[in-house]
Automatic annotation (TrEMBL):
Domain of life according to the entry: Eukaryota
Biological classification of the source: Eukaryota, Viridiplantae, Streptophyta, Embryophyta, Bryophyta
Domain Cell division control protein 24 OB residue range list: 25-146, 152-279, 399-630
InterPro entries, sorted: Cdc24_OB1, Cdc24_OB2, Cdc24_OB3
One Pfam family per UniProt: CDC24_OB2
Organism: Sphagnum jensenii
Protein name: CST complex subunit CTC1
Amino acid sequence: MEVDDVFIRLVEEARASLLLHHQQQLQLQQEKKRKQQQQQQQEPSWAWVCMRLLSCCSAYPSGVTPAILLSDLFQVGNGWKTGDKNGGAARRSSSLTTVLDQQQKQQQLPRLPNMVTIDSIHEKKFVSLDSVLQVVILSVYLLPGTSSYVLTLGDTWSSSTIDLYLHRKFYDLIEPNNAILKTGREIRLAGCRLRSAPGLAQPRLLPTEFLVILLDEEQEDDAMLLGAKFCSDTFANIQLDLAESNLEFCFYARLDRKGEVTVEGQHNHVKHQVITLCDDNGDSLPLVLWDDQISISSLLSEGSMVALERPFIATGWDCGLQSGAPICLQYGSVTHLYTLPYVPREEQVSYCLTYIEICCGPREDKNQSVFMSQVMLPRDSQGSVDFNNFPYRLLIGHLQPRMSHVALYAHVTWAVGAPAVKSNEEQKEHSNQTFFLRLQDPTGFVDVKLHFNERWSAGKVFVGHVIFLTGLTTIVGGDGRVEGQWLEKDTEAMLVNITQLPALLSSPSLHQIFPLSSLSSTSSTTHVCRVRIGKLGPEDVQVRTSHARCGRAFRQLNSLVCSFCGGPCDDREAVPEFMLRTVFYDSAEDAGVEVVAWCAGQAAAEIMQACPSDFCSWPEEEQAMYMYSLENEEFLVTLYWGLEDDHRTLPLAGPLPLELQLMAWRVGGAQKYDPHPFPL
């Protein structure tokens, strides 16, 4: 798969171009020698380059050129490194830049999920309620003629600033004698809304009560604040009668775990989330967030220390807790939250690989010189090593337990559908289903559990397809082997089917033409071939009903749900499609090499150049004449060795399962061959 894969070579060439461009830009900058050397060590992540290329290919299904792909990479080139972007909003002065630089040196914090930058807000002129801002206060001032405070905010990723109307619940934190919200203070915001008005030069953020203040124990003022206010109360001190007497508490605890967001109430309209906090004595209490307050959860990370000032104290019964906790905490109208973020410690991860092994699989020549790569990677609060910024491609043979944000480029050797459901009630209960894929590359295989938000949304994925999967976390399975887990809800989760990517056929830069004589059933590559259609008879063309969501054919026409993905089989989901048994001849060879391949779905519709429902309405004589007219038509097709079926379990070691013994050549995509295409 690896040596002949044009897309893999394109990713490596794009990474090299990005790195060269970055080094040229560094040579033009006038910075200190030490800082310049540190920045030169940065390399674009292989997974990030691959994601950007595939996103561009998806945006231009009619075809892309290397110039288009590289242009898109350079436009978003700062995505793989921390750097300033040129924005069209208010610029920050040199003094404000100094404040941000000092804050950046104090603590290097990882970016949170759903985090947006100030530059992106100005560019889109929009900010969603679930977006997270991690910003530094650059100045605090009173709006002229009013008693309203405004904060000027900046972040280390943007070259512009933005103003925020401060919520009145935080006014006591900017008083002269209690100046916690001051210049240089770092805060996190959620639930923001943007306000633009004719009298404003730049839009401002409206007040939000979802604000968390970041503290640093190494700063004297912050250490004194923690010692004076948050070290006296513990969870064991809480008594309901004291809480009802309006006695104020201040707690300091570690965020142990975030629970799932659940929906309650008679009409399923009340959302709540439970965050488990653990104090220094080992006692735990739940912090319950309701509806819009759930945004606060995105401002806190597991493993971080949280300081709660004046939380609302309620009984577990009032909060509807099933755990039996007698007391719980809530985010009240006068509650202030502080956090000491968990800073992941760097761990040196070393890989002793040749460059050939990194790009193309295990080396055959053991005498090759060894390419040593030593990369500093962060470890999260759960002990997993974060490979999000790993510069090289990870192969399945490199996988170890407790790895996160792993990206794999591999082919599917097995697919297991969701458990069968028999009724609408069971269908509702299985709204969050788990699927299994077995992925393989030249270094080995791994079983991956796919968790979708609701239903299967990965499209048509069959055995033999080549896919790109990112956002993977590795664990140890029941049999001691390394397994993968993939959650669709993760912000960096992505699953792309390379075999059925429309731009693969329409972009010469993404493929090379394989002669049919070079095809091998032992190869796991998706081959692009230029072929002629052989004779099609009535026995070679069928029209079947399949599920639009996953592409599986219906075994029973009166079935209520799909046998693979469990989705409903109603009129919107059940679609007619062709199923063809085609004979292909090589357009460029005279040897008469032929390949028999099965074709279904959109690829079959491209070859038939007709709609299945229209074809069925024609008389048999007209159908036969039409099929005869397709003979010797030329197409570009993607061929893979696989099958289209669903399974209930993953295969164990031993003889090859019967289904895999029935594998055949199949068509992943087809496009009418144009001898004079538009130059791409």
